[in-house]
User: Fold this.
Amino acid sequence: MTELSHPDRQAKVEAIRAAGRDPYPPRGVPAEAIEALIEAGGTPEEPGPRIDTEVTVAGRLLGMRDFGKLIFAPVLDRTGRIQVGLRRDALTDWWPQRKELDGGDLVAVTGTLGRTQKGQLTVWATEVKLLAKAVAPPPEKWHGLVDVEQRYRRRYVDLWASEGVREVFVKRSRMLSLSRRFLEERGFLEVETPTLHPIAGGATARPFVTHHNALDVDLFLRIAPELYLKRLIVGGLERVFEVSRNFRNEGLSVRHNPEFTMLELYQAQADYRDMIELTEALVSMLAVELTGATEVPFRAKAYDLAAPFERGRYDELFERASGVSLFDEAAVRQKARELDAEVPAELGHFKQVDRLFEILVEDELDRPTFVTHHPAAISPLAKVDPDNPDFAERFELHIGGMEICNGFTELNDPVEQEERFRAQVASLDPESPGEVDIDYIQALEYGMPPTAGLGIGMDRLCMVLTNQDSIRDVLLFPTMRRRPAQVSEEASSPDC
RNA sequence: GGGCGCAUAGCUCAGUCGGAAGAGCAACUGGCUUUUAACCAGUAGGUCCCAGGUUCGAGCCCUGGUGCGCUCACCA
Assistant:
């Protein structure tokens, strides 16, 4: 037992046991979805087919309004909420047990679907069963859980005590299943690739390091599935995708969590332009399916997610915003000094350009926009633009100042890929991989067809589609520091 | 990691100038058969985040720490 357990409620548990009943019975009760009953109840003017029939609902008792010989109480299940009416006349045998119930308890109620004098749809109970006693009291009924720390740490309370929370996560789940269906309809195969990587590749990020005892090797939690998925393209699967949990050992913010979900996909015989079109089709479909329209509210603004989205070349956006050419190293350096945004010189000129690009362009890209043709120097896995080899056949989708997607025509020349990997490893960037992924180069040596790939940050896309300001509000259990109390509690009193 | 802010009853929050720890909801007792955050009367409930310091006296002032939020840096 913990400090949350309330003595009055514990006493009720004991009283129920003393009376020979089980406060935690092993079996539930078959019940109907509340949402369906509300639908089948009709309106006060036009009663539906289930009015005056016997129904059973099961769920959490959210409170009780006790009138002495009559009690009204809302019951919540996964689909909705309905009122139950407990009358002494109809529950003669059970009536003395009513004091054993508290708000927060899990119950099953059988009765007749009807209405109150004011027309409220109500299950008039003929049978009440306690399914599980809540010894911890629920949060205040009107405000719910508003302390954000408590909401994230106790999501199991937040989901039923705070308005709209469950809806966000239902939408997130639908977003994933709609995306899967969308890709499967286009011939993509869902695959699973390793989470434990011997080399942290496919992105530029600090990895989490772990150790495998039997093999006695250090392994990295994946920062991206990219290099494995492209091996599968070499393997002839041609169209693959993975819903990939990625791990990056970096800071937390309103848009960053150390573990996050990317939908990454690769398609043979496609290039970056096909990926742009696929992105537009997927995102606008999700907007319609989840919100009912292509125009979605986000951060007190309206975002139009109808295809096509705006497009802008990286170099043009950069030069328009900064007033300098991105090839002019002296001018770029000068601009960086002005903005107090200098990066170490050893990381290279285009890292500095990209740093300025983030400040001057990305943060201002509010409306859905594809940025295209990033510098090849910062796109080591992308094919260069044949018309202009300084730039890559690459794009990113930005919405509301956030990068949502990243995609490109994949580099499939093994010699060029090896050169780019070697340049990365040689650079002094602490986030570069520590060694060249020779196995990946060898895969390319067997021949990878012309291929394009795309990665979508599903958490951020979910933020936009559910109008949540923080990534933590679209993660069921966002990463949190462990509380000292949790540590000492277990260490000092294991028998509690 | 830096800056700013928050931490008081199970929950949501007041707490004035440094002078006896408060309210609503939840709980408990009693009343009430159609409520909609039901209502009425009563009872109980506190490590004021933690540790120091200043003071006759600290929820309040000072120092350090912990947790969380926002923000900057890093990143998607």
About this structure: The mean pLDDT of chain A is 91. The two ends of chain A are 5 Å apart (CA to CA). Residues 7-138 of chain A form a domain with the OB fold (Dihydrolipoamide Acetyltransferase, E2P) fold (CATH 2.40.50.140).
